[in-house]
# Entry
Amino acid sequence: MKILVWPLLALALTACMPGIEEVTDDNSNKPVQDITDYSICNGNPSGSVNGNWVTRQKQGDMMIINNMKIADSKIVMTTECSYMGRSLTLEVSSWINYLNSGITIQSAAFKRHKIEETGFNMLCETAITAGTFNYGFRGRCLTLTNAEKTTESSTWVPR
# Structure
């Protein structure tokens, strides 16, 4: 059984929009599902984009946890891909500038790691895309919207 898992996480701060993972077993045609518990959003907004934020996704048996930390003029994206008892953790970062209700990510960052063994291949990628993103709050949760493509947004729960 040959398995190729490819969660592509582009933090165009459309944030955790994995590209369609290619899997050559039962997961190949399963959609990526957002399994983040948004019930935690209830409550008063934090008012600051700074903090630790998380989203969770699933495709078949593949789990993807995305942790985003914004602090000290820096954004750090840590992605954990788990499948069949194996996991990969990747981290990328970039400097940011703060705006009134947004952030500008100064440079793109990308990381990829692959596990290749007989009968098992897993590829995990994560990226941060440079650009400007507006932010707002839905209760305690952070919503980021691409300033140039306002239809692209993502909601992150506090960690």
Q: What stands out?
A: Residues 95 and 156 are 20 Å apart (CA to CA). Residues 4-158 form one domain.
